[in-house]
């Protein structure tokens, strides 16, 4: 052990961070496997249209393709802000 060992970067921390990032990427790819290529574009366009009428967050629109027997189902979820006046 050298007196300057404390100056060397620890490689185990970066390796574990890289491994965790890779796990996240693989998990995301598995969820999108088999989904049509146009879904991200559809999601962005829907968000643009909704923003013309309501102020919503970028994560407010979720577009997914699901199977229902022999049919493909387009599942669109929009989280709208609660701007109703409170009763009180």
Number of helices: 2
Largest sheet: 2 strands, antiparallel
Helix content: 25-40%
Total number of β-strand segments?
A: 2
Shape descriptor reads: flat
Could you tell me the mean pLDDT?
Answer: 78
Radius of gyration (CA) equals 22 Å
Structural class comes to: alpha+beta
Give the ordered list of helices and strands.
HHEE
Poorly predicted sequence stretches spanning 5 or more consecutive residues: none
What portion of the residues fall into strands of 2 or more residues?
A: 15-25%
Count of discrete structural domains: 1
Compute the separation of the termini in Å.
Answer: 70 Å
How would you sum up this structure, described in words?
This protein is of the alpha+beta class and 88 residues long. It has one domain (9-78). It contains two helices and two strands, in the order H-H-E-E. The chain has helices at 11-32, 39-51; strands spanning 61-68, 71-78. A two-stranded antiparallel ribbon has the order 1-2. A hairpin with a 2-residue loop joins strand 1 and strand 2 (71-78). The protein is flat, with a radius of gyration of 22 Å. The termini are far apart. This is Cell division topological specificity factor. Belongs to the MinE family. Keywords: Cell cycle, Cell division. It holds the Pfam family MinE. InterPro entries: MinE, MinE_sf.
